[in-house]
# Entry
Amino acid sequence: MGMFEGKVALVTGGNRNTGLDIVEKFVREGAKVFMCGSSEASTAKGAAILKERGVEGVVAQACDISDAKQVEALFDTVERVAGRLDILVNNAANQGLGHGGPLEATAAQFREVFATNVFGGFQVTQTACNRFFMKQETRGAVVFLSSNTAQRAIRCRTAYCASKGAINSMVRALALDLGPLGIRVNCCAPGYIYTERWETLDPAKAKRRRMNCPLRREAKGADIANVVAFLASDASGNMTGEIVTCDAGCSCQHMPEDVDV
Ligand SMILES: NC(=O)c1ccc[n+]([C@@H]2O[C@H](COP(=O)([O-])OP(=O)(O)OC[C@H]3O[C@@H](n4cnc5c(N)ncnc54)[C@H](OP(=O)(O)O)[C@@H]3O)[C@@H](O)[C@H]2O)c1
# Structure
């Protein structure tokens, strides 16, 4: 029997890369899974990939998580189809790529990153609590995805790094207020994850990235999905407000071996 038999889960950004692996893990563990991408086209594409992988029964509905109306519409579907929700995975993210450095990034770009990563995650969590968790005896569990860049910044990603730091703080704040109500809120902070973006990466750069990692490898989406599943499951039932890093040991070093002197 799977660890999520009889459970209902919602995974935001479940339509590509890591999100697909999280959806697949939850389905294979017995959950009824709802997922969204930000647009009709990207969500449909993700649903087709899941079908190709033999991942059945996923309900896919486009939802820009920064838009209150679209969030309500997504939860209307969860209510109509499943009538309950047990697990929320806040995986969707605006990567804030291509903004240049802090002297070039525009206010609109900065706001967009925060609208998805911070406010979007909050809005979906609040809606899950009010519409489902607080009405159910068994309440629910929330898992956010932040990043090891919340602690150790990367270049030309000011808004992204700041948003991931804000997620870590929000996880602790939500855990504090929602814990007494029986709702757990935890977070997985990945480092490098293999995604479609690695397919166009210069192999020499990929090799150096791996050298940055004490374990000499980036995470697969499945590595992250395993941590998320643990944090969403009863196996972590006494944990809340935790940020669990999954980054092949990157954060435990002062500097990578190939530049160490
Ligand atoms: N990849 C890494 O190396 C890495 C490292 C550390 C942390 N992380 C974190 O791990 C998570 C997964 O990473 P990833 O690289 O797999 O993500 P990704 O490839 O960048 O995918 C982001 C997902 O979020 C969705 N999304 C973006 N804006 C949205 C919005 N406003 N409303 C709804 N959905 C929205 C995207 O949907 P569309 O397809 O519609 O755009 C997509 O499904 C993210 O939280 C990321 O920040 C990733």
Summary: The chain has a mean pLDDT of 97.
